[in-house]
Design goal:
Blueprint lengths: L1 H17 L9 H10 L2 H13 L10 E3 L4 H9 L10 E3 L11 E3 L5 E4 L33 H4 L11 E7 L2 E9 L3 E5 L8 E2 H5 L7 H7 L6 E6 L2 E6 L5 E4 L12 E3 L3 E6 L1 H5 L16 E6 L18 E6 L4
Parallel strand pairs: 4-13, 7-8
Antiparallel strand pairs: 1-3, 2-4, 5-6, 5-15, 7-9, 9-10, 10-13, 11-12, 11-14, 14-15
């Protein structure tokens, strides 16, 4: 009994120490009440998630009754102190408790914060604004070798696939296309025990990558989760750096800039209803090669406000080729 109480007390103390305080309105009493309601194994799962910042690869749900929205308190306590309401949260596809009518998952790393894009989006770094682009980083500016949009590989598509993924480093596609049939897929760097597309594994085929690319790979981390939800595509940024997204349903008519999605936030990046009402398509170098494609650059932006004018100058980026490819 003593050992049981000792471990429980240790876990509680660690979780309280790890919380992100909200200042004068910090609900420390509410957090303490919540922790007392958890069983010891739940405290252990919660501590593992908080300590690893969601990198442990597990899908453990910490379930509590839905009343009083305990998941909001957990997300405020260990991730976003300025979070205001449940409507600002969206459950990650890996969470297994979505359909539970009684309990809600309180693992804060099973949730993402819904991002509301700025108009126009801010530059990634002031140091990149309007600097000339280095020619050596964009050797194939107008070419897209090996793209599904240009060489007819789509004829081999499995009808059950909703997209294929192409990984690029600068203007070079690295590795084969990755078909996706499951509703959600993780795309990550060198993260042990993750399921999905490992960009670090693909990158082994590009042994002569420049330093900028190798440095960019280090910023990918947990990367992104891509989810096909009711025809729409959501991107959950699980890394510690922003991502930059370009799609036909995100573009502002008079701005070729991509949309910047901050770390640990999510965004609907493709809306089929919006796409159906588009009457014209911009096939310039700033826009997508294909109307049914989405582009994501890890950590580095591109466009008129950046040193990198085109996505083919970004160190590490992903092309999501939706079915059907046009």
């Amino acid at each position: 009994m003593f050992m049981f109480r000792s471990r429980r007390a240790t876990l509680t103390k660690r979780l309280l120490k790890a919380r992100r305080r909200r200042g004068a309105d910090d609900d420390g009493d509410g957090v303490m009440v919540l922790l007392k309601q958890l069983q010891e194994n739940q405290l252990g799962m919660l501590w593992t998630a908080v300590e690893s910042r969601g990198r442990d690869g597990g899908n453990n749900c910490v379930l509590m009754p839905r009343e009083r929205q305990p998941h909001v308190l957990c997300c405020q306590t260990w991730r976003w102190p300025d979070l205001l309401q449940s409507a600002d949260l969206r459950r990650l596809p890996a969470c297994r408790s979505a359909l539970d009518p009684v309990y809600v998952c309180c693992n804060p790393y099973h949730w993402s914060r819904v991002y509301q894009p700025d108009t126009p989006p801010p530059p990634y770094s002031k140091s990149e604004i309007l600097k000339p682009e280095a020619p050596s980083e964009n050797p194939l500016r107008q070419q897209f070798p090996g793209s599904l949009t240009t060489n007819g590989e789509d004829s081999l598509r499995n009808p059950s696939e909703w997209c294929r993924l192409a990984y690029w480093e600068l203007a070079q596609r690295v590795g084969p296309l990755f078909p996706v049939e499951a509703p959600a897929v993780n795309v990550f760097g060198d993260v042990p025990y993750c399921d999905g597309l490992s960009l670090e594994t693909l990158a082994q085929q590009n042994c002569n990558a420049p330093e900028s690319v190798r440095h960019g790979r280090c910023k990918i981390g947990l990367g992104v989760t891509l989810s096909h939800e009711g025809g729409s595509v959501w991107v959950y940024n699980r890394s510690e750096n922003p991502i930059f997204v370009n799609s036909v349903t995100l573009d502002i008519a008079d701005s070729p800039l991509p949309t910047r999605v901050p770390a640990e936030q999510c965004l609907c990046v493709y809306d089929p209803q919006k796409a159906a009402h588009r009457t014209c398509w911009d096939f310039s170098t700033h826009g997508p090669v294909d109307p049914n494609s989405i582009r994501i650059s890890f950590a580095k932006g591109w466009g008129p406000l950046y040193k990198r004018q085109e996505i083919t100058s970004c160190p590490c980026w992903l092309e999501i080729l939706l079915a059907p490819c046009r």
